[in-house]
Design brief:
Layout (H helix, E strand, L loop, with lengths): L7 E2 L2 H10 L2 E8 L2 E8 L1 E3 L3 E7 L11 E13 L7 H4 L5 E16 L2 H15 L14 H9 L1 E16 L6 H14 L4 H14 L2
Antiparallel strand pairs: 1-8, 2-3, 2-6, 4-5, 5-8, 6-7, 7-8
Helix pairs in contact: 5-6
């Protein structure tokens, strides 16, 4: 991807935090018919493996050993030039879009193992149900239903060979403009604005 130095993010703890906060990845797979895209939620296992699952009919289920590109989209939003103090002085500002993304390249391993799959599903549901008043668990469903569901899917494991982030968070602007964007996002408060403002605020603190 196009990656200006100002927006490059290579700290693994920061990249891993985005993977865990926004686990739904766009998975790109090249083939004879061209590039195929699928969307799969992944669980980061340690630092070098991502685990997920798809239906048996999915193209990824037949792609054992293939090279894949995973795109994780974090917070994003439109930035108005009106939020820059410098705009009110010189007028020399234009709109832009701020965002944080992580790109992962690796090899795909297809796993057809009911025990492995059940363990993954338990991990995924336990994590994503944690905020519910009464978290749902795999054991809440009838055994025959779970067994049927497991037969309909296969596991995916991606060994991370390369990972890099692009965090476009107004780093190419002076501090006053960056703080103006954070304030503007909080005031607008459209979908995703609070998350983007929070990521910008943390980035400001980490790089102070």
């Amino acid at each position: 991807m196009y990656l200006p130095k100002a927006f490059a993010e290579n700290r693994r703890d920061v990249l891993d935090a985005l993977l865990r906060a926004y686990p739904l990845a766009t998975v790109l797979l090249g083939g004879a018919g061209g590039i195929v895209a699928n969307w799969v939620p992944f669980e980061l296992d340690g630092t070098q493996r991502l685990s997920g699952h798809v239906a048996r009919g999915n193209e990824l289920a037949q792609a054992d050993g293939a090279e894949v590109l995973l795109l994780f989209q974090g917070p994003q939003g439109y930035v108005s030039p009106n939020w820059y103090p410098s705009k009110h002085v010189s007028g020399r500002e234009v709109p832009t879009w701020n965002y944080a993304v992580v790109e992962v390249r690796g090899r795909l391993r297809v796993i057809d193992d009911a025990t492995w799959l059940r363990r993954l599903l338990e991990t995924l549901t336990d994590r994503h149900e944690a905020g519910q008043p009464r978290p749902w668990k795999i054991g809440d469903a009838p055994d025959d239903h779970i067994e049927k569901s497991l037969r309909a899917i296969v596991g995916l494991e991606v060994s991370i060979e390369r990972i890099e982030g692009k965090f476009k968070l107004s780093q190419n602007h002076p501090e006053a403009n960056r703080l103006g964007v954070i304030h503007g996002l909080r005031q607008r408060n459209a979908a995703g604005d609070a998350e983007l403002a929070a990521w910008m605020t943390r980035h400001e603190a980490a790089n102070a």
